[in-house]
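Fresh eyes needed here. I'd like your take on this protein's tokenised backbone:
***
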Amino acid sequence: MLTRKRSVCLGALVLAIALIGAACSSDNKSSTSASASSSAAPKGANIDYKSLSGTLNGSGSTFQDAFNQKAITQFKTTAPNVSVSYTKSGSGAGKTDLQNKVVQFAGTDSLIADADKPKFQGGTVLYFPTVGAPITVSYNLNGVDKLQLSGETLAGIFSTAITTWNDPKIAADNPGVTLPNTPIVVVHRSDASGTTNNFTKFLTKAGGSAWTLGNADSISWPATTQGAEKNSGVATLIKSTPGAVGYVDLADAVNADLTFASIKNSSGKFVAPTLDAAAAALAGATVKPDLTYDPINASGDTAYPITSPTWIIAYQKQPDKATADALKGWLNFLLTDGQGFAQSVGFAKLPGDLANKAIQQLDQITTG
């Protein structure tokens, strides 16, 4: 499948996402596989939304922001006495805010590092998966609207070992495509980011010896690269820089009218970053007992290999019953009604089995 450049406004995002698919054609043992074929539709907890009250503040992942903002608007009509806010600040900042009990929940696309777990002042943290989506490899290259890239080639580009667009390794991924002798400008996140974590996780898995910069929320990028804050900032910098390439979530890439590449998956197929391809990756991931999972480079011919998971994380113990009940209601809404509108803002919904496991985990939220 090949990419197309497309221009849409935010209100038409659902149509654009559909066109992409239609027109472009820890040490714990695993407990279950998120299989699309065996998924049951999520059945929500028995919650009286009208009785809920209080304020829930969240911060973190910019990747999940579009979904969260849509959900906040819809949740207000369901639970009118609960005020929910979410500030997109990056997964790293969100985790820090939750550590310090500045927020009641945080959005993150990456897991809490073992070294950081003792820093969380509220004790045990629960992971609630919400949606997933592709991380696009977006680029600005005049005259080239179809591009395929393997993991090894991407690793060479983002480590700056490959410096021009007509490099033989890029050409080998793109037979028959005329590539210009344009210098490559690598654009990356400058803030601590789950998007960076998942993108570099793919490079670590698929890049082989060409990738030596590691996998983390923050990377020591080569000095010749350029950084920008948040997914939207990376998208803007790519858009304004000839020869640029960077990694951006699908919603921001579409809204910025970017062109993006098809990426070679673990089955050897070049796959475009569509919601169907992301759903295939989610379905192929193995879920651990704490509901963490890894769809990066998942198996399957149709799976998009740079599909990011994303979670809402919160403390198991809440300070009072009202806050605990409001948090349960908010999470239950994301895992039920929220799944129904996920695609309209550029996200793949969870496999039903995984959503149901997350709903069952709501019972673990207590006071004390």
Q: What stands out?
A: The two ends are 52 Å apart (CA to CA).
